[in-house]
Design goal:
This protein is mainly alpha-helical. The protein contains seven helices and three strands, in the order αβααββαααα. The protein has helices at about 5-20, 25-30, 45-55, 80-95, 105-110, 115-145, 155-180, and strands spanning about 20, 60-65, 75-80. Strands 1-3-2 form a three-stranded antiparallel β-sheet. A hairpin with a 7-residue loop joins strand 2 (about 60-65) and strand 3 (about 75-80). The radius of gyration is 21 Å and the shape is elongated. The termini are far apart.
Length: about 190
């Protein structure tokens, strides 16, 4: 049975292909490199569960288990040949074909009439403020990153900037339509 592809599994495989490492270091690198903007590592256990799955499926192997001074024992992982090939296959698939994803915002838009128009308008105005702040932060991150990183290491941040920018334009248009009354509905819930 083929291993289920996920952004976190791809990140773990990518990191152990870069250099053998233990789970805590993987999580540190994901955060240090701001990859936690695109890979969910909010739950520490998710990294360990992903490692267990990759081990079970033969995509990574234990290189060694070591203990440094007063630190807990740490298991260092490395990729297998099957892991390297699987990573390449996943990358080709993830780059070439859009995945059918189910983010919350489009789902909320699909059920917009469960709120009165004025309440939806207030929520969307809040979203505009959050998106504007997020866009400013991403632009700053790009500007600062460009001073010491090659563009190759910033392309996912460029993508996030453009996605936020497009969403912001869409939501501003929705806010305008609701404000002007060109989009409205009878609230009945």
């Amino acid at each position: 049975m083929a291993t289920r592809r996920s952004p976190l599994a791809m990140a773990v495989l990518s990191l152990v292909c870069e250099a053998p490492m233990h789970a805590y270091r993987m999580q540190q690198l994901i955060k240090e490199r701001h990859k936690d903007d695109v890979v969910n590592v909010a739950q520490r256990n998710s990294v360990y569960q992903t490692i267990e799955r990759l081990l079970r499926d033969g995509l990574i192997a234990v290189r060694e288990t070591a203990r440094e001074e007063n630190r807990p024992e740490r298991t260092v992982y490395e990729p297998t040949d099957a892991g390297r090939e699987t990573l390449r296959q996943w990358m080709r698939a993830m780059l070439s074909a859009p995945a059918k994803e189910f983010p919350e915002f489009p789902a909320a838009l699909a059920f917009l009439p469960v709120l009165p128009p004025e309440e939806a308008l207030a929520a969307l105005r809040e979203r505009v403020a959050v998106l504007e702040a997020g866009l400013a932060a991403v632009r700053t991150e790009l500007a600062e990153g460009a001073t010491f990183l090659a563009r190759l290491f910033l392309v996912e941040t460029e993508y996030r900037r453009d996605v936020i920018d497009a969403e912001l334009a869409f939501v501003r248009g929705l806010v305008d339509d609701l404000s002007q009354g060109t989009l409205t509905w009878d609230y009945r819930v």
